[in-house]
Amino acid sequence: MKPLAEFVKERRKEINLTQEEFAERAGVALTVIRKIEQGKTNLNLNKANQVLRMFGHELAPVNSKDIKK
After folding, report:
1. 3-state secondary structure of 50
2. Residue 11: pLDDT over 70
3. Is the Cβ–Cβ distance between 8 and 57 less than 8 Å?
4. How many angstroms separate the most distant Cα atoms in the chain?
């Protein structure tokens, strides 16, 4: 599984948008995009999902029992 920071940065570059342009299209502040791409851990899940929806994805809680299977 690819880290969130790497995924968002790669996908943003694939669609040829700057961080500023991407933030505007996603409807979030530029600081949200920067935090995600820098791998910050103190992200707002709703904001992260707003960004990920641009690529048809979403983060959701996963039960640790399911990860171990």
Report:
1. helix
2. yes
3. no
4. 40
As a whole number of angstroms, the distance between CA 68 and CA 58 comes to 21
CATH number at residue 27: 1.10.260.40
Three-class SS of residue 62? Answer: coil
Over range 14-37, report the average pLDDT.
97
18 has a pLDDT exceeding 90: yes
Q: How many domains does the chain have?
A: 1
Q: Position of tokens 């791409």?
A: 37
Phi, psi angle pair for 22, to nearest 5°? -65, -45
* Burial (CB count <10 Å: 0-12, 13-18, 19+), residue 8: buried
**3-state SS class at 2:** coil
Judge whether 66 lies within some domain: no
